[in-house]
Specification:
Blueprint lengths: L6 H12 L3 H7 L5 H8 L4 H10 L2 H9 L3 H8 L4 H8 L5 H9 L3 H9 L4 H11 L6 H4 L5 E4 L4 H11 L9 E4 L5 E5 L1 H6 L17 E2 L4 H10 L4 E5 L5 E6 H19 L12 H28 L1 H6 L7 H24 L7 H29 L4 H31 L10 H22 L1
Parallel strand pairs: 1-2, 4-5
Antiparallel strand pairs: 2-3, 5-6
């Protein structure tokens, strides 16, 4: 159950730390989850947080650090030597978390940490993990796992599992390999417990197993694990040798990062930014799409200038410009958001034709309702019936165009390996503003 961080608890903790009573402060944390301690520590100033963290047992300290925001964690680790990080942090973590934290350090300190690890096998594993590019299964995996040989009996398998379990906190799965450590399948713990100790593993394990290679993209791993409801997935090299495993908690982090990235793209940020990023980085991320909007506004004003004569004859046209632009943008964003979701779920490739037909049908229904409403409003306020028809027809055309445009653009971007989330932000709204006004004034010229 989640622990609520109260102001009273925070104030009491700060009081003990300011008075140099670190042990009394630690007592207040008794029974708290590492994630809650991390949340609490991040609300302290740097000096207070360091005093508190140094009071924690090594295993808890390492667990708390994994729940820190990256910027806060980097500031904390600046106060620790490479030897301290190796002893108090890395040695107490799973290899995937340890590799992530070491990878955040400056190169010189990274090497210092690795060289101070007493466990040389752990140092080799971490050095290997750090070689994999970010965003791949190799960078995401941990090397702690249980593996048994297909030629063993159940008795030998259980004995070996007991030995290996000393280095594994949680047994997610038991993997079966051959003499060359090629992954052959997985073994059910239930079968181990209910089968004769003399039975060969070869007759017991499941050969139908989902796996990924170290080079597979992390979003592909996330899709596979989500599709098949997997809690853990083995990772192999190009030869099929078992190297590690990826668990569901790693995938949750991937999905969260992807959701944050897509949200920022849809909001008009050209690159991922964090709250603590510099003023220059924040400006660089925001400015490009603001300039796109600026250019779109200039083009839209040019469209309006070219129809100055019509607006002179029918000044009421101006009153409906915000409505036409807003409706086009809203419909386009709705359509593109649905398609981006379909692309993320891998369903757009199979059902593109159906999706286009559905969006066209939805556009016709929504367009008919909205255009009828605006026609009745314009006519009811005393405007000429031909003018009311112009506004209603324009809105119908704009909604239809925006529906199809919002559906097609994400698919086209995805086809050319461009993130389709770009299509749901300022790009769609700006384009629909310009083309929507063009349609509006073209229909006005034709009917009026």
């Amino acid at each position: 159950m989640e622990t609520k961080i109260s102001k009273k608890l925070l104030k009491a903790l700060e009081g003990h730390l300011n008075e140099g009573q670190a042990k009394a402060a630690f007592v207040l944390l008794d029974g708290m989850h590492a994630a809650d301690i991390a949340e609490l520590a991040e609300q302290l100033n740097d000096d207070q947080a360091l005093v508190l963290l140094r009071e924690l047992p090594k295993e808890l300290f390492a667990d708390v650090l994994t729940h820190f925001q990256e910027d806060d964690r980097s500031r904390v680790l600046e106060s620790f030597t490479g030897k301290e990080i190796a002893e108090y942090v890395v040695s107490e973590m799973d290899t995937d978390d340890a590799a992530d934290i070491i990878g955040e350090l400056p190169d010189e300190k990274e090497q210092e940490v690795l060289s101070n690890l007493v466990d040389t096998e752990l140092a080799r594993d971490l050095a290997d993990l750090l070689k994999y590019p970010d965003g791949t299964a190799g960078a995401l995996m941990a090397t702690e796992l249980i593996q048994v040989n297909e030629n063993w009996t159940v008795m030998k398998c259980v004995a070996e599992m007991r030995r290996q379990a000393e280095d594994v906190d949680v047994v997610h799965a038991v993997y079966v390999v051959d003499d060359n450590e090629i992954l052959k399948g997985s073994l059910s713990l239930k079968k181990l417990l209910t089968t004769s100790t003399k039975s060969p593993i070869l007759d017991l394990y499941n050969k139908d197993i989902h796996k990924v290679t170290v080079h597979d993209e992390e979003d592909e791993v996330a899709r596979t694990m989500t599709k098949y409801d997997l809690f853990v997935m083995p990772v192999v090299d190009d030869m099929g040798q078992l190297l590690g495993r990826i668990t569901l908690d790693d995938i949750v982090d991937v999905l969260q990062e992807e959701a944050d990235s897509n949200y920022q793209l849809m909001s008009g940020l050209s690159e991922e930014v964090e709250y603590h990023d510099s003023l220059f980085e924040m400006t660089r991320a925001r400015l490009p799409w603001l300039l796109v909007g600026l250019i779109g506004g200039i083009v839209a004003s040019g469209v309006m200038s070219s129809t100055e004569a019509e607006m002179g004859l029918w000044p009421q046209l101006i009153f409906f410009i915000p409505l036409i632009a807003a409706m086009g943008g809203n419909v386009g964003v709705q359509s593109s958001a649905i398609v981006v979701q379909a692309i993320a779920n891998d369903s757009i490739q199979r059902n593109l034709g159906e999706r286009l037909r559905r969006e066209l049908g939805i556009g016709l229904i929504n367009g008919a309702i909205c255009s009828l409403a605006i026609f009745l409003y314009a006519w009811g306020t005393g405007l000429d019936i031909m003018f009311a028809t112009t506004v209603g027809s324009s809105l119908m055309a704009v909604i239809l165009f925006a529906s199809l445009f919002g559906t097609a653009v994400p698919w086209i971007l995805n086809y050319y390996d461009i993130d389709p989330a770009l299509a749901t932000g300022p790009f769609i709204t700006t384009t629909n503003d310009v083309l929507g006004l063009t349609i509006y004034f073209a229909i006005a010229q034709a009917l009026l």
